[in-house]
Amino acid sequence: MRSFLLDALRKGKATIAPPGPDAAALEETARALGERARQRLGRSLAIREIDAGSCNGCELEIHAVSNPVYDVERFGLKFVASPRHADVLLVTGPVTWNMREALLRTYNAAPEPKWVVALGDCAVNCGVFAGSPAVVGPLADILPVDLHVPGCPPPPLEIVRALLALMEVQAAGR
Amino acid sequence: MSGARTLADLLGGRAAGPDGYARLAVDASAWTALAAGCAASLHDLGALWADGGTMRMALSDSGRGLRAIVSLQTDMGHYPSVAAHHPPALRLERAMRDLYGVQPIGLPDPRPWLDHGRWPERRNEARYEFLPTAGEGLHQIPVGPVHAGIIEPGHFRFTANGETVVRLEERLGYVHKGVEGLMVGAEVEQAARIVGRISGDSTVAYAWAFARAVEAALGWTPPPRAVLLRGVMAELERLSHHINDVGAICNDASVLAIHARCTLQREDVLAVADACFGHRLMMDRVLPGGVAADLSAEGVGKIRGLLARFEETRDEILRVYDSMPSLQDRTVTTGIVAAELARQYATGGFVGRASGRAFDARKSFAYAPYDQVDFDLKMRTGGDVDARLLVRMDEIGESLRILLQLLGRLVPGEIRAVRPAAAAGEGAALVEAFRGDVFVSVRVGADGRLAHVHARDASWFQWPLLEAAIEGNIVADFPLCNKSFNCSYSGHDL
């Protein structure tokens, strides 16, 4: 285990640095939110992820935002185990009939105020699964959606930036 | 078992098609004799599916290099149940009955499987009866379908006595998207996009299996460079998941440092894949006839750099894992899968290979480019979480060797062949995904569109073994067992 620490010292920080337009925009949003979001929710958003029919591709990239390169927790974004602790429901997949009830129950279990993010092409418009009788429809047909994040799957940096933008919008909107 | 029939006897020297599968129609008694042959370990059950009014079964005998797809014309949808003789067919038959209405006569468990009583055009009972448990001091723990972590949905019903799990019963089907129905009548390219999202984590393996099946059906030959590039993408996919799984298992034993190191290495793979092929997961990069993205000389250099870094990570993780008795205390002798069960279920991937089943589609039914590559089939016999973790580490070493050889053999050339004139045909293929063999069978109609596609994920024959592996373990060790299997929900739910 000591070798891990020595190695980390030798190689330096793995977390991506701010320079470059994308990362700068990300930092900027993070800073803006630091001011405003604190008024309503403190400096953090608790996120509950719900796979409502995904192929597991989006889940892989949602996992990636927590790795040391993107390190989403540094922005105050935290994934939580229970919807009762959540501010944001991050939903993936074309909503299947078999997941519809679990999705609604999870939504109802989250306290107000809450925000819903449709992540990935499937949650946005059912993606390649559009038209299947086993699929209810895009997430917006079932729940009020505050933010759409297209992509198949959206890369981690875009997921991070979208979540930061959501904090900005919800704080500014009231 | 009496009445059992071997594959060799059935085939009687009949030649296999270009895809390696002999195809023949059988009657109900031969069908049942072959099912009994599965139960008697004369051959393995590879897949079982409905195609119109016909039931089909893929059988294999890797020792003799035999594979067959047998077809049985149903009697108005009725046919003799395979699961009545061979339990591994049970969920397959329940699923096919739910999707296509075919009725297996003598099915030992008549409960629905993928049909949860929610589909709008059906009016099935939404209530599901779990198997009864009786005994003093037993309590039930229902988990899911929405789990605590960021994973796919499914329901686990634990019956426990104090800390000890007496029984686990799985209920799956929550992410059923109707993929087979969506592909009926689809153009080949559109179907390839859907197949690549049956289980998005194995998108390269699925797309490759589909491509090979379509190519066999139409007599379509991909260029040599494309075949090598498919191998490169498939091994990158395998590396990304194997290292991620190792980290996830250690994370569930609270060793966050290993987890962090593994996720960093995974990120390295995905960033290189993105730079080389234009997509982090390499979705839609393997197509029938070849591949959609070429690898530049610069890309080759990037992958070589990755291999060196990965080798270092692997050695480091192994060193740390070996030096932590408190971690091994959680993994060694936890969640043991008996060798006999792995054999009975013809379980593929690291689950089978950690329990002594020497099967890897890249070796057992070798396909290009693996038939020209020097690597070893890695197997262990412990059958526990530790063995499944170490098989992954062993296989990472082999994937690094494979990639070096594939890169060394790349010569300039075409990456996609033109589709031949032939329109109709049947084809099937078996490809080794990171979690085990993926089987895809296709039927192309006279109009050149897909008439039927069936995909069988390795998880079908792994999920039932998870139920067996957890028995007698403590509830707190379930996450470790589950991660060490890492079965697909979406790939199973179809």
Describe the protein.
The complex is a heterodimer of chains A (174) and B (494). In chain A, the strands form 2 sheets. In chain A, strands 2-1-3-5-7 form a 5-stranded parallel beta sheet, with helices on both faces. Chain A has a two-stranded antiparallel sheet with strand order 4-6. Chain A is α/β, with parallel strands linked by helices and 174 residues long. The radius of gyration of chain A is 17 Å and the shape is globular. Chain A has 6 helices and 7 strands; from the N terminus they run H-H-E-H-E-E-E-H-E-H-E-E-H. Chain B has 494 residues and is α+β, with helices and mostly antiparallel strands. Chain B is 41% helix and 17% strand. In chain B, the strands form 5 sheets. A 4-stranded mixed beta sheet of chain B has the order 1-4-3-2. The two termini of chain B are 33 Å apart.
List keywords for this structure.
heterodimer; A: about 170 residues; alpha/beta; five-stranded parallel β-sheet; B: about 500 residues; alpha+beta; four-stranded mixed β-sheet; three-stranded antiparallel β-sheet; about 40% helix; about 15% strand
Write the layout of secondary structure elements.
The complex is a heterodimer of chains A (174) and B (494).
Chain A: H1 2-11, H2 21-41, E1 45-51, H3 57-64, E2 77-79, E3 88-92, E4 95-96, H4 97-109, E5 115-119, H5 121-125, E6 135-137, E7 147-149, H6 156-172
Parallel strand pairs in A: 1-2, 1-3, 3-5, 5-7
Antiparallel strand pairs in A: 4-6
Helix pairs in contact in A: 2-6
Chain B: H1 7-11, E1 22-25, H2 28-39, E2 44-51, E3 54-61, E4 66-73, E5 78-80, H3 90-100, E6 103-105, E7 138-143, E8 155-161, E9 164-171, H4 179-183, H5 188-195, H6 203-218, H7 224-252, H8 256-277, E10 286-287, E11 290-291, H9 297-322, H10 325-331, H11 339-344, H12 349-353, H13 361-364, H14 385-409, E12 425-433, E13 436-444, E14 450-456, H15 463-470, H16 478-485, H17 490-493
Parallel strand pairs in B: 1-4, 5-6
Antiparallel strand pairs in B: 2-3, 3-4, 7-8, 8-9, 10-11, 12-13, 13-14
Helix pairs in contact in B: 5-6, 7-8, 7-14, 7-16, 8-9, 9-14, 14-16, 15-16
